[in-house]
């Protein structure tokens, strides 16, 4: 009986905890886009959702995600201003912000980077490119 208990203890001691999932905040007002990103990412990442820029800033401060996917055309506070606020806050300034936007006009990427975005993607989302960028920022 003692040997059996020792064997069970040995098995229990070998249990290894997996590291916690990286947390991604998706700031997107269009439900279809939110749902698509969530479906793509939820198996590998913990997902937080904000539907406008003001909520995105508040959630970034409250939850400190590992990365933020930021739409730029948002109600209340647009993605450019939300990014500026996130980058101006000492609690959230180091969080990478990736703009994901339908704005693909000349100068939009430069404008997003000037606001503080660390990376930029256009919609529709290229899944392979998205996962490559996530690997770059989150390891």
Automatic annotation (TrEMBL):
The lineage of its organism: Bacteria, Pseudomonadati, Pseudomonadota, Alphaproteobacteria, Hyphomicrobiales. GO terms for biological process: phosphorelay signal transduction system. The modification 4-aspartylphosphate is found at residue 71. This is Response regulator receiver protein. Keywords: Phosphoprotein, Two-component regulatory system. InterPro entries: CheY-like_superfamily (IPR011006), Sig_transdc_resp-reg_receiver (IPR001789). Residues 23-138 form the Response regulatory domain. The keyword Phosphoprotein applies. PROSITE patterns: RESPONSE_REGULATORY. It holds the Pfam family Response_reg.
